Amino acid sequence: MSEGTAWPHVAYDKVIGYHFENPNHSTFVAEAVTASTVAGLSKVKTQEVTLDDKQAKELLAATFDAAKPVSLAFCYDPHHVFVFYAKDTPVAAIEVCFHCITVQCWPKDELVHHNDFVKLNGLCQALGFKEHVTYQPEAKEQPLKNIAVPPGLR
Q: In the chain, how many domains are there?
């Protein structure tokens, strides 16, 4: 699928998208994604879909190619992760939170905040991920109200 020139900067031969329950509101991409990470994911996944080459390219474009960066949010409760594999070994991952309109990736990349959530939403719907794909572009534009901001973040 990939020659390894653009993110994730390594060759991969398969991308699998997962929808998962997230009772602990945790992330799978805070550190390196390993076989044990995927094993943990298998305990909470509700859907699994292998992306074809076209879908993998759409995922990468929607994650990294938006003209301007989107802002980060305080909530992060992801329910979608796309794991890139090389010979069944995880080599990269993109994790998506449609609640707060945020993406994280491993390995890290500064362009990860240049997302197109309309395209990400469309891809997830095309893959059959039904839950937690409720992105509404106008929701990102609404001002945050009644949110306590920690002093160090003001």
A: 1
Q: Positive or negative, the Cα torsion across 39, 40, 46, 51? A: negative
Confidence class for position 116, pLDDT limits 50, 70, 90: confident
Structural domain contains residue 1: no
| 145 part of a folded domain | no
pTM: 0.74
Q: Is residue 149 part of a domain?
A: no
Tell me, what's the pLDDT at 10?
87
Supply 55's token pair.
């879908």
Report the alpha-carbon distance of residue 8 to residue 2 in Å, rounded.
9
Q: H/E/C letters for each residue in the chain?
A: CCCCCCCCCCCCCEEEEEEECCCCCCCCCCCCCCHHHHHHHHHHEEEEEEECHHHHHHHHHHHHCCCCCCCCCCCCCCCEEEEEEECCEEEEEEEEECCCCEEEEECCCHHHHCCCHHHHHHHHHHCCCCCCCCCCHHHHHCCCCCCCCCHHHC
- In tens, the pLDDT along 34-69 reads 778 888 888 888 899 999 999 999 999 888 876 666
**Beta strand 45-51 with 80-86: parallel, antiparallel or unpaired?**
unpaired
